[in-house]
């Protein structure tokens, strides 16, 4: 797209503690509008890490799918989901199933996979009466704000994700791997550097070690990129954690995270990570028809607790195989 094109000039509202917002008048053809301005919209995401487009007026699932398709070269099929979603079309999903009254803390989508989405897309069809924002936080700034000794340990060791698949909580085998065939699941695990062990009751437990800090594939800047806090037992509500430990045992939680050497992560560390995220959080309540684009590597996102009916659709795009997706023995220079 030529820099002289009117579509390349977008007036974005920048307000402290809020994501950048682009106000538009609802076009007759939302997908056509998005296609014409795709380069300019993506440039804003590259510059700011996220962009909320307000006024686009999407109201139906098919309309959202067309807008998302216009903004990307193709949507990703989710694998290794931590919570079930409803598939609404190729690469188009409902929000992950999660209790309304429990927040989904800051995280980078699928940061524990070898091929991660570089771009997240969200669209709001129904906004809740209270709460429910998809908030964002700059991963570069979060990394800079963390204590050096902690960030360097994670950068040196990485982080370890453990999962226990069962039919009662979290994503099932089929929802996570796209199949419940044992041989196919084992092939996937071997191909994606996941250690696995079948349990006597037929359930599956897995372990995978990933980097906690990566360099952005476009800017080269170091980003805090993981789900260490979100998938840790200490982020769960106390009553939920107590129930799960009683029901499945400390080693059988649906998911948990450790330091890369397998050492447990203390509650104090998890609280520090979540409070650092909160210090850098930008939030704006959803309005029906909103669309948001998020650079998944530079920007963490969350889903805040809410009351009322909420319908936000999600898609993932621009798959990236990060060269430093696995931890190294050396700490990168700052």
Automatic annotation (TrEMBL):
One of its GO terms (molecular function) is dioxygenase activity. Keywords: Antibiotic biosynthesis, Dioxygenase, Iron, Oxidoreductase. Pfam families: TauD (PF02668). InterPro entries: AlphaKG_dependent_hydroxylases (IPR050411), TauD-like_sf (IPR042098), TauD/TfdA-like (IPR003819). Residues 35-315 form the TauD/TfdA-like domain. Its cofactor is Fe(2+). Its EC number is 1.14.11.-. It comes from the Bacteria. PANTHER family: GAMMA-BUTYROBETAINE HYDROXYLASE-RELATED, TAUD_TFDA-LIKE DOMAIN-CONTAINING PROTEIN. This is TauD/TfdA family dioxygenase. It comes from Streptomyces gibsoniae.
